Amino acid sequence: MTETTHEASTDLVTLPGTPLSDAVVNLIQSVEVRSVFNHSIRTYLFARLVAGRLALTVGRDYDDDLLFAACAMHDIGVASDGPHKQRFEVEGADRAAAFLVERGLPAADAEQVWQAIALHTSPGIAERRGTLCVLVREGVALDFGGPLGADHVDAVTDEQAATLHTTYPRLDMVRSLTDAIVAQAAKHPKNAPRYAIPGELLREREEFGRTRLEHACRSSRWGN
Questions:
Q1: pTM score
Q2: Which of 73, 180, 193, 197 could form a disulfide with 121 if both were Cys (CB 3.0 to 4.6 A apart)?
């Protein structure tokens, strides 16, 4: 590997390294299984690639710390230590916003992160709620490799994908994340509203033993 290629690979997987991003990493490492943690970090790394494709610039178009916080905490609603009394997207958004406010961020910034997390399973809505919502939604979709929307799957080269997946392996992410969402959804009717993602995943698991998402991801670009 040439020095230039090595530097590019390093840049590709470099995290912000700020006090806030380090605090976020410490939080999610302590409450998420490794496959979901890796998915959350890859979501941020993929979101940065989408930002570049859309000619969005850090500082001008979005705040990198907020992007990292929203991506890294977007699935914290299925964390093992959560109250599990709301659908996981909202529970995660509430927890993430509270975490940011406790660390001195303005309420307006916390609200941006709240919306990005709460809406990340809402295609057609997230894309109309600002740049942060767009990038989180697209980062999540890109990490699923196609089934959640394939607008930017070709924004990632095979070499880039290999670097991301070597650094943060998938570890059967789709199954383990679905397991966590279904387990959280099954705890209370409010957690699984009909036609919302958690409600549908729970219903499909109960009726068919496997969700359509899991089936679709088997033939996606990254697999399960």
A1: 0.91
A2: 197
